[in-house]
User: What shape does this take?
Amino acid sequence: MLLHGDAPLAARYLAAAGLGRLLVTGDAPPLAARDPSFRLERATPGAAADVVLDLGDGAAWRKAAGVRMWGGALGGRVLLGVEPREGPPPAGAARAILETLAAGEALRALLGLAPRSHDFA
Assistant: This one.
């Protein structure tokens, strides 16, 4: 799975869920995975992955093939699972909620379940 954007909370949830390999763009967050086979690797936005979760600028979402999700903010609303939109990234509690929902939806996609879209203020 590829995680694009500054999303240390989402990375922690994915590692804790038993994800075997997580590719991240930019700086890799420090993680303590329970599974010793867990691998955290640095990647580019276009790296091949089963699921691409873009909580950044949309670059990974645009380059991905297959299952892809984007999350961000637009007009005071937090969005997940839609095409990237222009707007500042959410901050504070809204960012934590976005990362938590995003990690859950990414796991759903990895399990073969259809990811859902979320839109909340």
